[in-house]
Write a structure and sequence with these properties.
333 residues, alpha/beta, globular, 6-stranded mixed β-sheet
């Protein structure tokens, strides 16, 4: 079943205080915005993205032949699933709680029976770290046999640059498919572009086959500009500074949740977390709708398999104060 409860802009427009996405609330990154403003819009980008792949490869210290450019992480999720099917995969393994597009892509391509079960073997296996929605170390590692091949494992690194609680755990990245989506770390999710890095010993024919599944110019000039900005020292320095700010804001937001009686689930490592609200499950949708009418949006975690819970991205103190006022006003009504 598709995850149709994405956070962010909805039929009511852009929320004044949007806790429903995991974007970096310090953004948009000014240096990346300047790069978009300077983007050359009169011509198509290079359909092979030659210069961009060289820049991304240098940033990750990998061969440029391993890079695959994508329209977004969701686009690459679907393309990787289709590619796995064409290569003989018969099943997909998912974390217990995960982004809905993994399962939706599997269903579209006939690879998933519907159950989320970490069964390893021939097939496609998804992991995201820090995980979504819980922001934890991925539970899929516990299910991976020591002698298992990593070749079918895709590590979604969407939130890895936003790891707040100590360093991200080391992984054998050369043995995995990596999926990178910098727009979240840069606080500019309205710009869609992403890239995948193939495992080090992947046959070039396999990488080329994945590339050919994309339409021509799958990423436009603004997406190219964002990805090029992503690897610059100036943007990486901005990101490092923003993490310090997010840690401070997160501490304040966790304290606010405690004052409101919201039970935060433990183990979160990133700029978002999950909390259970002091409401009956049946009352939660109406309360979230009432908050949305006041310009505040939270992410209902039902689609992640966590009914009665919400996922909250860390926001600035002004947004936290607005949330507190709105919640208390509804509680007193």
């Amino acid at each position: 079943m598709a995850d149709n409860e994405h956070g962010g802009t909805d039929a009511l427009g852009v929320p004044a205080h949007d806790f429903s996405t995991n974007r970096n609330a310090c953004g948009p990154c000014p240096e990346a915005v300047a790069a978009l403003q300077a983007a050359h819009l009169a011509q198509y980008p290079d359909p092979q993205y030659t210069a961009l792949r060289l820049q991304l490869a240098a940033f990750h210290a990998v061969a440029p032949e391993r890079l695959v450019i994508g329209g977004s992480s969701s686009e690459l999720i679907h393309r990787l699933t289709q590619h796995a099917l064409r290569q003989g995969a018969t099943k997909v393994s998912l974390p217990r709680h995960s982004y809905g597009d993994y399962a939706q892509a599997a269903e579209v391509w006939g690879l998933c029976p519907g159950a989320r079960s970490p069964v390893w073997g021939e097939g496609l296996h998804w992991a995201c770290e820090p995980s979504s929605p819980l922001g934890r170390v991925e539970d899929m590692w516990q299910a991976l046999p020591a002698d298992a091949s990593h070749h079918g494992l895709v590590l979604d690194c969407a939130y890895r640059p936003l790891w707040l609680e100590g360093p991200a755990p080391p992984r054998d990245m050369a043995a995995l498919w990596q999926l990178w989506t910098p727009n979240k770390a840069l606080g500019m999710t309205g710009v869609r572009a992403a890239y995948a890095i193939a495992p080090e010993d992947t046959a070039q024919a396999q990488v080329d086959a994945l590339r050919t599944l994309a339409p021509s110019w799958v990423v436009g000039a603004h997406g190219v500009a964002m990805l090029q900005a992503w690897v610059t020292p100036e943007v990486q320095a901005w990101l490092a500074r923003s993490l310090d700010t997010l840690r401070h804001w997160k501490g304040r937001q966790l304290a606010l949740c405690e004052r409101l009686g919201w039970a935060v689930l433990p183990g979160h490592q990133a700029n978002y977390f999950v909390a259970r609200l002091p409401l009956a499950q049946a009352d939660l949708p109406a309360r979230l709708a009432a908050l949305r009418s006041q310009g505040i949006k939270l992410r209902d975690a039902r689609s992640f398999g966590l009914p009665g819970h919400v996922r909250l991205g860390v926001m600035a103190p002004v947004a936290q104060a607005a949330l507190a006022r709105a919640w208390l006003s509804l509680a007193d009504a």
